[in-house]
Amino acid sequence: MATTIDREKECPFLLRIFTRVGGHHANHEYTIDSVPATDELQLYTWMNATLEELAQLIQEVVPDAQHPDARVAFRLIYLDSQRATYRSRDIGRVVNAKPNNDQQKTLDDCRFFIGDYLDVAIYIGPPKHISRRGSDWGPRDGPGGGPMRNRLGGGRFSRDRGSFRRDDKPFGRRDRF
């Protein structure tokens, strides 16, 4: 639950947003010394700003985000101080054609801290269906064919292509049992 902020009395902070059409920026583009060089948006806002409000502000500046089938995906970019690198976490999506629960999330709800960045991907059109059964996986024949043959016994770590034998030793745990 977000805290109540009086926008008339509270001072806004600078929020740096990096947009890209078709996908997010790669994490390695965010370093201690640099951030993505293009598509930066700077705006002043409050911690109780919702993702919907931010999406509306982005739509005013980025023409592709105004498309009726546009999806605006938000990713939080934050500094991992122990490793001195930036890490990311997806925090929500706003879809122009279909309202959802993510629209009402605030920056405070997303555990945003002043100094973090937002990386925003703008997708046009319906989401593409991603299937794990692509050509990389080969046929799904079940037992005896394709990748399914290695599921429960058998495969390259088994001696008899069947289940475990009584005298089998646990792999990698010699004295723990």
UniProtKB/TrEMBL annotation:
A cellular component term, taken from the record's GO annotations: nucleus
Domain of life per record: Eukaryota
Segments of this protein annotated with the region Disordered: 131-177
Molecular-function annotations in GO: transcription corepressor activity
InterPro entries: SAP18 (IPR010516), SAP18_sf (IPR042534)
Biased segments, Gly residues type: 141-156
Listed Pfam families: SAP18
Biased composition (Basic and acidic residues): 157-177
Family: Belongs to the SAP18 family.
Protein name: Histone deacetylase complex subunit SAP18
Species whose genome carries this gene: Lichtheimia ramosa
